[in-house]
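no rush on this but wanted to send it before i forget. theres a chain ive been looking at and ive put its sequence and its fold in token form underneath. please have a look and point out which stretches look like helix strand or loop to you. thanks a lot i owe you, the record is right below:
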Amino acid sequence: MKLQEQDVPRDDSVNSIDAAHPTGQYAPSFINSIVEFFSKTWTIAEWEVRKIRHDSTDLVTRAVQPALWLLVFGEVFAKLRAIPTGSNVGYLDFLAPGILAQSVLFISIFAGIAIIWERDLGVIHKFLASPTPRLSLVVGKALSSGIRALPQAIVIYLLALILGVKMNFNPLALLGVLIVAVLGAGCFSTFSLIIACLLKTRDRVMGIGQVLTMPLFFASNAIYPISAMPAWLQVVARLNPLSYIVDALRSLMIMNAPPGNLPLDFVVIIAVTIVMVIIGSILYPRIVQ
């Protein structure tokens, strides 16, 4: 009986150990959770990007549209001098960041269609049955859209150089362009995911995407400055997240770019992206209902 009493730890001794190391048992668990979250997020993103290797023509076809905008629209309006840029940069210099933002928008706004395909194939059911957090699923898909946007940035940089655009090749500026492109693509792809979770059919998501792309693009400062817009459209443009993406890209990409507000641009882009991701992670299970 005495041996049994000695083998059983007393409650006060356990409490004293916890008091001496109050966070000892929680810190490793918290760190492991963070590491596991990023690991699963990257796994989802890598799985999505792997699809490009099976259909690399998608990257080629998506590069045609920005090339046409720069080579045709940009060259013509640069010679006409019809659109004032309000700065000492040429129109092609002014346009190139806007076309990159347009490419980011067009690549990501239809991402919800892929979610519906995955639901029909039963992939979403397997994701939801796994212990992977819903937030990891949504962030992973957003990150994959951002990675898909990077080849578009390379194409536009090459075309801009050929056309004589004065590009800024400062390493920090290049890093900033990559971050803005990834965040912008993640924002709009998650917005598309939200639409897919609500509408649940490919035709409806395609229709909404087509309805939204042109208003988002033309109601921004991608191809003309906000100061050239009528008053009501200026209000819309300042509420449009694409305007802040364009403004950030223009400040980072172009030498002697018109003055922008990079801190405000990053705050708006990050805030909108976080809100979209949170809403997307809440609505994600509804895609199978």
Observations:
- The chain has one domain: 12-288.
- The CA atoms of residues 70 and 76 lie 9 Å apart.
